[in-house]
Amino acid sequence: MHGSTYHGSRACIVVTGLGILLGLFSFGTPCFAQSQEHHPALFRALDNLSSERMLADITMLGSPSFNGRQTGTVNDARSATWIIQRFHESGLSPANAGLDPFMPSGPDHGVPSGLMTTTVTTSTIAPDPVLRISSGSDSLIQQLGTDYLPILDSPSAEVRGPVIFVGYGIVDATHGIDDYAGVDTTNALVLFLRGTPTYYKGTVSHADKVRFARQKGAIGYLTATGPTLSSYESRRGVTGKPGAFHGLSPRSDTIPGAWISTGLALQILA
Length: 270
Fold this sequence. Notes:
The protein is of the alpha/beta class. About 30% of the residues lie in helices and about 15% in strands. The strands form four sheets. It has a five-stranded mixed sheet with strand order 5-11-10-9-6. Strands 1-2 form a two-stranded antiparallel sheet. The protein is elongated and about 75 Å long.
C-alpha cells in the first residue's frame, strides 16, 4: 500500500449541504405556524423537496462512478464537484459571492480555504499488485477484486513463503485458545478466518490477529470469511467475496496482508 496526501476544501460543501437538510427538519410542531409566517422562502423551498430527486442523488453518490469516495482521493474531489454542480442546478449560490466553487482554494491559491480544510493521509492500492498462489506444479496469478483485495492500510511489500492455516488466528490464554500451538509459522504467510468461532466468548479484533501473526514470526497473512458471521456482518450482507478493509493495526504490529475469497481459501486448503 502507498500513503498519499490530498489537500482540499470541498468537503465543507458536503457538510454544509447536510447541515441545510438537518436545519430544515429541526422545526418543532409548536412553532410551525410562526416559523412559516416569518420564513416564507424557507417553506417554499420545503415544498419543492423531492424524495425521488434525493434518492437519485444518493444513488449517484453511492454508485461505482465515484469508487467509494474515499477521503483524500480524486474520486472524493470529483464527488464534491458533482455536489457543487447540483447546488448550482438547484439555484444555490456560494455565500462568498467572490469565490468560484469550481476553482482550487487554499493558502497556496491566496484564497481562504474554509474551516473544513485539512491535509488527509490516505491509502491507495499500489499499481499492478500481484498475488500468486502455487500448488505443486500449478502457479496461478489471482484476480484483484474477485479473488483478493489488499488490506488497505497494510504495508506495501513483496513477500514469498508457504501458506499455513491457523484457524481463526486467536491466541487467548484466558479462554484456553491458542491457534498457533504446535505450528511453526516463522517466515510463512498465515491464513486465518475472519471473526470468531461460536464457542469463543472473548473479544478479539483483526488488529489483534495480525499482532499474533507477527509475534509468531509470520511475514504476511491472508484472511477469508469463514462459516460464522457476526451479527454486524450478517446485517451488512457480507459474503465470501473479499471487501475493501482497513486492518487498523499500529505500524509497529502490522505485516502485509490481503482479504481473499472463501473460494480461494478452500482451494488453498484442499
